[in-house]
């Protein structure tokens, strides 16, 4: 894959109904769950010296968990389309439902480690997120257990650390910037919480899939580069 961003936008536009269906059936329920749990956490968690820092830690853990978990069907769909496989949408659903529990358990462990890193040192937390991020992508593309993909995922994460770091957190910053703009715009029109919630969910239904498709494209490209180098080294070793 030579141009991941162009390929991702091309897929998004040409298969918009499939991407939207995945978003409505998988991402939307998780967004509703996130909203409910976040509000519940804020309501029941005691403040710390007048701040909500404890609740923020719980919500950060929940956000990273659901982010990692929700990516799987989009990664699978992107990879199926790249491979030219038939029934990409059906296979994406099948893969997600069959392997969903394993991905959820990985997301729990990865989110816990990343959140602890963010709380204790912050920068190490960002590094941990970046290094762990490719693992579910590799597992999905190679059709392997996510736990058996840790080594190859970490290797790819280390090799392309700065590129991946910039991609992940640049998109996070862009989403935050757009989200803040929407919040200010809606507050200028109405103070309705429902309006805020619906607007942000709509944004995430569009933004989350395209980010996942773009990063999937880059990981497909980097994965192929690694395999090409390894094959060349193996061939040279035999000569």
From TrEMBL:
Record bears the keyword Signal: no
Keyword annotations from UniProtKB, A to Z: Membrane, Transmembrane, Transmembrane helix
Residues annotated as transmembrane: 20-42, 48-71, 92-113, 119-140, 161-187, 193-220
Official protein name in the record: Glycerophosphoryl diester phosphodiesterase membrane domain-containing protein
Organism the protein comes from: Pradoshia eiseniae
